Amino acid sequence: MKNLVILGAGTSGTMMSNHLISKLPKDEWTITIVDQYKTHYYQPGFLFLPFDIYTSKQVKKNGKKFIPKQVNYILEKIDLIRPEENKINLESGTTLDYDILIIATGTKIAPDEIEGMNGPEWYKSIFDFYTYEGAKALRNKLREWEGGKLVVHITEMPIKCPVAPLEFAFLADSYFKNKGIRDKVEITYVTPLGGAFTKPKATEALHYLLEEKNIKEVTDFNIERVDYENHKIIDYADVEVDYDLLVTVPTNMGDALIERSGMGDDLNFVPTHKATLQTKDYENVFAIGDATNLPASKAGSVAHFEAEILTDNILRYIKGEPLKEEFDGHANCFVETGNGKALLIDFNYTHEPVEGTFPIPGVGPLKLLKESRTNHMGKMAFRWIYWNMLIKGIHIPFVSATMNEKGKKFDKVTN
Predict the structure, then answer these.
(1) Same domain, 291 and 369
(2) CA 257, 261, 263 angle in degrees (round to 5)?
(3) What is the pLDDT of residues 159-206, one digit of tens each?
(4) Domain total for the chain?
(5) Among candidate residues 251, 270, 287, the one where a domain is terminated
(6) Among candidates 56, 61, 3, which has minimal Cα distance to 34?
(7) CB 287 within 8 A of CB 277
(8) In this predicted model, what pLDDT tens digit does every residue of 220-237 receive, in sequence order?
(9) Orientation of helix 11-21 relative to helix 300-319, angle to 10°
(10) Phi/psi of residue 88, nearest 5 degrees
């Protein structure tokens, strides 16, 4: 028997286990998935948890229920990958052999990377919402907060779900309006980018919304340190932004396992061929989702599209066939804009987000790059789709893994 091992049982790893269990010959291959955490989180829900839109129970479930019974599920910390020997060391001392390895170890926040961020004010006046613990602590803070200077801040790119900090600012605007204290809250959006988003076309639309909602914008801010005693963030050009409540997106890094194994870049992301999802250094090792260094969004929709293409390429690899260079960086993201509305953006490596219809060209029912209540309903419906279809490896009707160009007018962008 040959062994296919998946490291990580988050969104990407769970999807791959479901895709492959029905496609690999059971008399020839065993599939093993390894993860140290029992709980599977619906991470897009972390955005809504601080505003009491979702409850804690709605964003977490027992991960084992989503892993196929025929898959060998190991609940243990991974100590080391030894790619030259096709072996994995587990913390208990157990060694796993593999013929094919899929790295789906995701990304984690690293607040220690910035001086003063993870200090005595962490989860007191400084919060993240990219973790369950951070989002829950922030929820408790917002319930009692009576106003002041709220700063929504991005440390550096890349980050998981690049639109989430903007969504947080928009939802905060709605949240404080509904509480009747918006006039007591000054919201400032601080980013290292030159604009509101990574894509110029979307930046135009999102900048307008910032202005409309009276959210100040500070761009090109490369943070050096957090002065938590005086409630300031300071960048390398000595620009200072005052805060009473800092909601920050710390540096996002790949799992420390990747660093220990000598397989990552400076941020512990795995160098990966952007069209095939095969790693650049080992032909029998593949990477998916947030664990890769691909110039694509680190988002669940991207992992979903990657999983369909990677499944095909794993089967081609086993047969000795050339891999398809098919993944085009496709990302499809709802952008919650507050007040029961949302935008929808659809883009890839070479195409900007543009106006049009989704998922059916010319029909919709969703409109691209336009605020609507229908898009908000789509965002809310995605939680059901996630738990019942996406991580179970069920194809979502009318949604292709690569970007559908029909019914859209766009300009090409250069990388």
Answers:
(1) no
(2) 100
(3) 999 999 999 999 999 999 999 999 999 999 999 999 877 667 677 777
(4) 3
(5) 251
(6) 3
(7) yes
(8) 999 999 999 999 999 999
(9) 40
(10) -130, 130
If you average pLDDT over every residue of the chain, what do you get?
Answer: 94
The neighbour count for residue 77, using CB atoms within 10 Å, is 12
* Inter-axis angle of helices 164-179 and 200-212, nearest 10: 10
- Compute the distance between CA of residue 313 and CA of residue 277 in angstroms, rounded to an integer: 8
Q: What is the DSSP letter of 351?
A: B
Q: What is the predicted pLDDT for the residue at 97?
A: 98
Contact 328, 402 (CB under 8 A): yes
| 363, 314: one domain | no
What's CA 255's distance to the chain center, in Å?
A: 14
Q: Which two tokens stand for residue 141?
A: 């803070």
Residues 215, 153 contacting (CB under 8 angstroms)? no
User: In the chain, what are the helix, strand and coil shares in percent, each to the nearest 5?
Assistant: 30, 30, 40
Closest CA to 192 of 221, 163, 233, 169: 221
Q: Are 182 and 176 in contact (CB under 8 A)?
A: yes
Q: Of the candidates 38, 333, 27, 286, which has an alpha carbon nearest to the alpha carbon of residue 164?
A: 333
Distance CA 137, CA 183 (A): 24
The pair of structure tokens assigned to 77 is 């910390």
Percent share of the chain, pLDDT over 90? 87
d(Cα 262, Cα 248) in Å, to the nearest integer?
A: 29
Q: Which amino acid is at 269?
A: F
Give the closest residue to 347 by CA, choosing from 292, 404, 290, 289.
404
- For residues 91 and 223, membership in a common domain is answered with no
CB burial string 146-177: b at 16+ within 10 A, e below:
eeebbbbbbbbebbbbbbbbbbbbbbbbbbbe
